[in-house]
Amino acid sequence: MTRNNHISIRQLLIGACTAGALLFTSACAQNSTFGSGTSGESSSSSVAIAVMYPETGQYAEYGKMFKQGLDLGVKQVNADGGVQGKKLELKYFDTQSDPKQTAAIAPKIAADKSVVAVVGDYSSGASMAASPTFQQAKLVHYGFNNSASDFTSTGDYVWTPQFSQAVFQKQNAELVAQKAKKIAAVYIENDWGKSAYAEFKKEAKKLGISIVYESSYLADSTDLSPILIPARDAKPDAVVHIGYGPDGALVVNTLRDKLGYTGLFYGGQITQEYIKLSGSNGEGTRLIGPFTPDSTNPNAAKFVKAFRAAYKTDPGEFNQTSYASIIDLAYGMNKTSATREGVEKALKTVDDFPCYVGTKTTFKFNQSTRRMDSTSFLKLELTDGKFQITD
Amino acid sequence: MVDTLITGFMHGNAYAIVALGMSLIFGVSNVANFAHAAVFGMGMMIAWWLGSVLGLGIVPTIILVALITGLIGLLLNTLVISPLQNRPSVAALLATIGVGMILDNTSQMIFGTETRSFPELLPSHNIEFLGVRIGTSDIVMLLLTVAIMAGMAAFLKYGKMGQAIRATAQDTQAAKQVGIPVKRIQNISFVIASALAGVAGIFVGMFNSNVSPTSGSSVGMTAFIAATIGGLGSMPGAVVGGLTLGIVEALGVYSFGDGAHDLITFGALIVILLVRPNGLFGKKQVLHEPMTGSFSGGAKPYRIPKWLGPILIVAALVAPFLASDYFSSVGIQIMIYAMAAMGLTMVSGSAGQVALGQAGPIALGAYTSAILVGQLHASFLVGVLCGGLVAAIFSSIITFPVWKLSGHYIAIATIGVGSITVALIRVFEPITKGSLGITGIPFPQLFGFTLFTPQLQYVLVLAFLLIELLIITKIRKSHLGKTIESIGNDPVASESIGIRTSAYKALAFAIAAFFAGIAGALMAHQYTYIDPSMFPFATSSLVLTIAVLGGLSSPVGTILGAIVLVGAPELLRFMSGGRIIVYGVLLILIIIFRPQGLFAKKE
Fold this sequence. Notes:
The structure holds 2 protein chains of 2 kinds.
Chain A: H1 2-32, E1 46-53, H2 60-79, E2 87-94, H3 99-111, E3 115-120, H4 124-136, E4 140-142, E5 158-159, H5 165-179, E6 182-188, H6 191-206, E7 210-217, H7 225-233, E8 238-242, H8 245-258, E9 264-266, H9 272-282, E10 286-289, H10 298-311, H11 317-335, H12 340-349, E11 353-354, E12 362-363, E13 365-366, E14 371-372, E15 378-383, E16 386-389
Parallel strand pairs in A: 1-2, 1-3, 3-4, 4-5, 6-7, 6-8, 8-9
Antiparallel strand pairs in A: 10-15, 11-12, 13-14, 15-16
Helix pairs in contact in A: 2-11, 3-4, 5-6, 7-8, 8-9, 11-12
Chain B: H1 2-29, H2 36-53, H3 58-81, H4 89-111, E1 116-117, E2 127-129, E3 132-134, H5 136-158, H6 160-170, H7 172-177, H8 182-208, E4 210-211, H9 215-230, H10 235-256, H11 261-275, H12 294-297, E5 299-301, H13 308-322, H14 325-342, H15 344-350, H16 359-375, H17 380-399, H18 408-427, H19 429-432, E6 445-446, E7 449-450, H20 454-477, H21 479-489, H22 491-496, H23 501-527, H24 537-550, H25 555-571, H26 579-593, E8 600-602
Antiparallel strand pairs in B: 1-4, 2-3, 5-8, 6-7
Helix pairs in contact in B: 1-5, 1-8, 1-9, 1-10, 2-3, 2-4, 2-8, 2-9, 3-8, 4-26, 5-6, 6-8, 9-10, 9-11, 10-11, 11-18, 13-20, 14-20, 14-23, 14-24, 14-25, 15-21, 15-23, 16-17, 16-18, 16-23, 17-23, 20-21, 24-25
């Protein structure tokens, strides 16, 4: 009897707490979240850029790098007088880079009149699930990390400052061809890796490189020996990797530590993560890159200095692209107006956006692909723990 | 070739050492512990911290990690598993998924998100052996695996405590009556298994060399498959299962490339279960009581009064036009997931069979409609209906052999079915565009009119949802529905009166897959872009959780479940970083304190 009472009271209490918490959250949400779109009405003194990014979840590391770059960008814009005299703000939305969440949050962003442009998300899938909403709202979606070949196909309000893989992989293949005629290639199995490798393969063939082994790998595979053993046994002049930092480090560590491969290695990624994870095995890694902390590009050098001052560490590619996206949009708006129309007009008309990648100092958009027009990249080699420019 | 075998063997050993703990817990508490992978990942990260930040050596690291993860195991059992003891096993299964979420996110918050190098606590690449280099660490891990396996087996068989553990596993009530302190026994087995998971984390960390807070989950899932292949509850089975899977994966990937990885792993699972339905070393399960048991049987859905139904429908219809677009878009997500989950009231509710692979039919529906409407210019409605049909037919074909299995084996086999479906979509590149994904899927179009706004799409999805609700309610009330329910309530009795239980289970699953396919098709036309990475295991577990939370006996309940589970991450948005942890806690609380589901009362 007492026992039963005890249980039912405890159940009652916790049940009530749960219900209370639910009610409380939905009540909060009613006021702030699902309000009839009046929240964030544009105040005359500031404008905002909305950021969809993975603050939590499996891509949180990239979210962190984005935030560093974005915060620095907005700080500088405001220090230089803001946009058209108004203060620039960032409105962050954690999406875990999950399409279910970006699709849900997109109308909230579109309805916020203070938002003049949207940047993000990390993955193409998450970005593209939100694009249609922005397209309809005539709100520019500036996917600074979305290099997938179809990303801008949703409509004319979807843009990306990413260069096309066709341009990038052509120069990548040229770099490989300088030293290798016979290669084994591995690439990450996702939309980006697949299309990047297809472009690379096309260009490599044109240059007379023979590919003696190729395989994709899944991003969450933890042992890549079964594909790297046949890659090694094919006796290539070089192993080419197309993917990201952590998996690039896994590839080069497995090749060198486990399989005793001593030949050339092309790939990896220009991040501190790759440099740290690959350690001495990574030394001699070659790749072409849009950006390195030692870039000779004057814009990039200025950015690196500011980044080091703010975070006491060297910036990587993700810091740079996110930073540049804010600078681009602010630069554009200062030439047109600090409105949604202003952003769109700027991307269509401005032809001297500050360029942080490669060797050029300005860039414009290719109006048919809505991407950065062709550019040149840096030839890099990892020496003494740093990606350094070679020839 | 020999070198591939060696690396496969070593990788398999990493699976084996994780699988041992999973099998121990299953043997003692009959819980498929999905949190084990997270405990293992936590052990890996703690070891990284002790080894590289504090610079401790291998011995103090092992002791400290075992202590901390052992404590986590104790908390896991006392706070979450024990309260669910007399409940159907699906309750504990879902609760451990919630615990896994909490642990993974806590680990990320404590240790940061980046991938880092694991300290070389023992030399890792110092022995050259037939074309590959292995290390002292690998050898020690292998010896440890064998020692743990032999030690556990002997302990369970001959030790006094071990015998008590086994007695508890066989019959908790009887064990209590002969004076065995059952609670303490179960606590001890969780402590041992979790400490083992932590120690496994140290060695797998050295094997992988690069680790992050999320790397536990991918190894953990494969280790689960290994434990299942070996036979759940069997110590030698866990080891043989792990080694077999490691070697099969290595040879398969060597021959077909890593793109086919999931196909090989889950293909091996299904094939082995078909030949040996209880795994390589598993004992034949005599009882095959339905996993969802009283989740449905002991509960009755609330009835919505006749006058209230129309009011609710009108309210749902009008709401989007009064609120913001954001309300509509969140509403669409909620309704799509409710549609995908509602069919499970037939499979997991009536037929009593847990299905953890619904991402498969959802993906099939999405792809079918995307291709038909987007590329072959079929009309929207035709695309959506075909999406449902293709999902039902293909899922039924792939799942058909699974119904011969019993208990947890069906649940785990359905995970395989979901993953195989998505892996096949990835491989059939000429039709599906593989990993590249399909872009430019048109918005829903009815009678030449495109539904551009979120409000109109909301109304469309609402219409589909109500039609599904009507059909499923009708089926549940019909003769067919009662027959399926009888299978869930008493499979032996139904077979004895001539009902072919596996055929009816397959039929119930086909119905659920049909509606999941329709939900997937609607999803595709809303996102306008799909790729295989959008249908992970997390989608499957979310769909099942929605059905369970709402009340497996209640189709209306799934809508409520979806409001809580799909809506909550949006509602909790104001709390930023910790929201997934709060979400996990909320999930566990509801499972513990509302076992019959939100929209049902106990009988």
